[in-house]
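Appendix B. Chain record.
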Amino acid sequence: MKLKNIGKITTGKTPSKNVESAFGNYIQFLTPRDFNGQRYSDTTERSLSVRGMEAVKNAIVKGPSISVTCIGSDMGKTIFNKKDIVSNQQINSISDIKSEINPMFLYYLLCTKRRYLHFIGSSQGSTMPILNKRDFGNLTFKFPTRSDQDEVVNKINILDSKIELNNQINDNLLEVSKSIFKKYFPDVNDGDEDIGSYIKNYDKDRKPLSKKERSQMPGKYRYIGATSVNDYINKYTFDGIYLLLGEDGTVQDDKGYPILQYIHGKFWPNNHAHVLQGYKVSTEWLYGRLQI
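Structure tokens predicted for this chain:
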């Protein structure tokens, strides 16, 4: 069954900046920056005023719906919208989903197809991968019965809820670790030594892989980019504890701190993240130092 036969396909539209307003005014305005690993678009960076809504009224997506990023290296990221949203033109959405399809089942299904979406988008002959509205609507899936879909969703929801709880615990522990670091190293910013003297840099050992190359070597090892895992392949170039620092693109969070990934085990980093370890200090100390 094709997506276009399951529901309504909408590509987003960006209004002029003078009609955008702070979050909470009228309706959520979804951009790729809001696809940060969460299931739901409960909060977005921006929303639209009544005037903004008038400018993009043909791009309103009725909830519940599913949105997928359709341009660039982050293409294929997926999020579930419980309420009405408007997105920019880098996002395709499907709404008005038929009753025989559980919307959350479709969401999970699309989440598992990110590599395939990259392949489709990269086959358009452009240097920038693009999954247009037509190709998105022509994606074809086979669905089990609605009762089987509901059963699968119920089971996955339990696991996802546990993951989200663990993520919250990790975030809280990170804040605690920052407080402890500041307590034991209150004057760390007052010295005259360069932070670089406490860093081992392994950037020369990075070997980026194209999407085509990765598609030919699927496996269990993480292929990691500037902010997250981009793929899974059958080879690795690093094994141990490392700190990845975003090199380009989104290199800092909303609070101005650098994008850091504390990585252990076997992985393959691309060329968009600096690969670091602590020198004369632990990698954990370096992580704490860069977080304050």
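Further analysis of this model is presented in Appendix C.
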